[in-house]
């Protein structure tokens, strides 16, 4: 005698629909953000941007460097005075604000049919002339030196790990990979210096993530988000609410834009930033919050940023 179990069948159907929905979400979430041709275009775009910056800022001309490429492995090229993204004459070291500058001191490049690496490693630099501007009894110099050493060590570790992973993955005869690391100066104000490290890795699917390094040039300390606000002030809530409003406005304006704001899978939804959320200050002295791919939106959205209007935090800014 056959027995029917409608409740179980219904549950199975519901589970099947849920599984299919999850597979759809996962497929969209994991789909490659950049093809190999798009990575090549990314590299061309970066170089074109560099050239534009060089033409706009460089009076002494652009210094061109050539390096021999090895047949089977990438090589390091030491570029002691080449600033990225602005190249000045060889004898010059560009100052970013009164105290800090950035130079590209190492390049790692490799390209074959299946593997490509284009890694430019920046290093923060302290020109001696800038230190003479400080009072003799000031501890800003010591703090600035410590901050730059910490940042340089972190960047060195990040890029060393990416290079090591890239070389290890080259042993895979079936796969392919792309690795790109570039940097961008985001702030050249008298008070703050921000260096953005841009990382991209593709191997079947692509992923971009960013690091932001900000130094308060008045104190020499690395700037944390909480340092921008009065002691004890709740800056998490107004910034988070502003981001949610901007997310919704962007989705309303463009059907191709999507953030995890009102998603059916509740745990995916953006709720609030944290003290560790990436940020920088733009030319208007406004806080800009940055998210990596997949943090608050599907991967196809890439890395996203939200500028927080001054009036949102005006009452609690230092």
**What's the total number of strands?**
9
Query: What separation lies between the terminal Cα atoms?
Result: 78 Å
Query: Which oligomerization state do the chains in this entry correspond to?
Result: single chain
The coarse silhouette is flat
- Please estimate the helix content: 25-40%
Structural class: alpha+beta
Total DSSP helices: 6
Strand order of the largest sheet: 1-2-3-4-5-6
Largest sheet: 6 strands, mixed
What are the secondary-structure elements, in order, as H or E? Answer: HHEEEHHEEEHEEEH
The low-pLDDT segments are 1-6, 21-36, 49-98
Mean pLDDT over the residues:
74
Strand content: 15-25%
Summarize the structure.
This protein has 318 residues and is of the alpha+beta class. It has helices at 6-30, 36-57, 128-131, 140-169, 236-253, 310-313, and strands spanning 75-77, 101-111, 115-125, 177-188, 192-203, 205-216, 278-281, 287-291, 304-307. Mean pLDDT is 74; it is low at 1-6, 21-36 and 49-98.
